[in-house]
Write a structure and sequence with these properties.
Structural class: alpha/beta
Shape: globular
Bound molecules: pyridoxal-5'-phosphate
Largest sheet: 6 strands, mixed
Number of strands: 14
Radius of gyration: 19 Å
Strand order of the largest sheet: 3-4-14-9-10-13
CATH architecture of the largest domain: 3-Layer(aba) Sandwich
Number of helices: 16
């Protein structure tokens, strides 16, 4: 499917890279020319049908797009309420939606004459996807990863190395996603002459949130057409996605932002509890601030610094969120809910055993909320969930938690 723009996407961001009050470029001024070069190169390619055609071709062969929309019949029957459908982004090559923008960045880097991709990663999904895209397009790849995450998702570290990427462990602060992001930004600052920063989510200074949204919008545009075809012309009543930076969410929402009758739900990690430092629910508890070069909503300590965060899903443990998501919160277009670690793990096991699908712990948050929502809504309604990734990376961790005296029994 080639790139199609919605009314929403043509209105935002504005000429200064803002989504309402959020976004912009809050990087050090000397990086202005770097971002201007990127914006100009991307704007030119964005209007070229050939670019999107080439991207579609790469996605079909390397990624396995389009991914299907699938009805979770067993769980829908068990719940007895609204019917739950999933967009199977877990079926992407490398196992998650992240490769949608990684392949885009790799093609963009090639067109710009860059020879290297730099990024941070949390759960490792973005890093593996980027390493794969870099290999396909003959580019070097450098992935920054918190030391805590390196230990937790060892298989993804091996995969990145196997695919030829250099993994840079970052041991500072909490040694997770935020620190990895700081370190990757620093590396880009030093290497921008020959490298492109393939940011891990729809975050960062303009034009990164726009580029990631555009590359991820394939999810929503495909899902909309597939849903209309499955239902004979009816849109979903609800679209649900988990949120860290917001790339899978804005991707699936992109197909429905111009349809006010479709409710958009953002699901955030409540972690161990809603207490400060125990969760990563930025849209729920955050306030306006600046993080990673953009004005957005940020979980902050009293002194304004980014707060400590926690989630059983490494890919959700981030104290910020993309500026477009912040705008959607502000405008009231989004419903925002939370799911705890425990509910996510219970859902992980339930979806595996009831449907034969092992969802990522990140995606299990979205699925857990969708199951709750389905119970409150009539069988005539339909819920579409972005099943953002597969859970192979989480299996050992979940089984150890279940068997090792945690409160969960599967
Ligand atoms: C499978 C999966 N889903 C969701 C996320 C959250 O990121 P985002 O909010 O950018 O979609 C991640 C991040 O690593 C992930 O790996």
């Amino acid at each position: 499917m080639s790139h199609s723009t919605s009314t929403h996407a043509s209105r935002f961001p504005d000429a200064n890279g803002y989504y309402g009050d959020f976004g912009g470029n809050h990087w050090p001024p000397h990086l202005g020319p770097v971002l201007e070069e990127l914006t100009a190169a991307y704007e030119e390619l964005r209007s070229s049908p050939d670019f999107w055609h080439e991207l579609d071709k790469a996605r079909a062969g390397l990624q396995g797009r389009p991914t299907p929309v699938h009805h979770l019949e067993n769980i829908s029957d068990q719940v007895g309420g609204a019917r739950i459908h999933v967009k199977r982004e877990d079926l992407n090559h490398t196992g998650a939606h992240k490769i949608n923008h990684c392949v885009g960045f790799a093609l963009l880097a090639r067109k710009m004459g860059k020879r290297k991709l730099i990024a941070e990663t949390g759960a490792g999904q973005h890093g593996v996807a980027l390493a794969s895209a870099a290999a396909r397009f003959g580019l070097e790849c450098e992935v920054h990863m918190g030391a805590v995450d390196v230990d937790k998702v060892n298989t993804n570290v091996s995969l990145m190395r196997l695919l030829g990427a250099r993994v840079v462990p970052v041991a500072s602060g909490q040694s997770t996603l935020k620190e990895a992001g700081d370190s990757a930004l620093q590396a880009y600052t030093e290497q921008h002459a020959h490298a492109l920063y393939a940011i891990g989510s729809a975050i960062g200074p303009h034009p990164f949130p726009m580029i990631v949204r555009d590359f991820q919008s394939v999810v929503g545009h495909e899902a909309r057409a597939q849903f209309l075809s499955i239902t004979g012309g009816t849109l979903p009543d609800h679209v649900v996605a988990c949120v860290a930076g917001g790339s899978n969410a804005i991707g699936v929402y992109s197909g429905f932002l111009d349809d006010p009758e479709v409710a958009l739900h953002a699901v955030e990690p409540l972690g161990r509890s809603g207490q400060p430092g125990q969760h990563a629910a930025t849209l729920t508890f955050g306030r306006p601030g600046i993080l990673h070069g953009a004005r957005s909503v940020v979980l902050q300590e009293d002194d304004g610094g980014p707060a400590s965060v926690m989630s059983i899903a490494s890919g959700l443990a981030y104290p910020g969120v993309g500026p477009e998501m912040a705008m959607l919160r502000e405008s009231g277009r989004l419903s925002i809910d939370t799911v705890s670690d425990e509910e996510a793990v219970t859902t992980f096991l339930r979806v595996a055993r009831s449907e034969g699908i092992i969802p990522a712990l990140e995606s299990s948050h979205a699925l857990a909320f969708a199951i709750r929502l389905a119970g409150d809504r009539p069988p005539t309604e339909r819920i579409l969930v972005n099943l953002s990734g597969r859970g192979d990376k989480d299996v050992d961790f979940v089984l150890a938690r279940r068997d090792g005296g945690g409160p969960l029994r599967g």
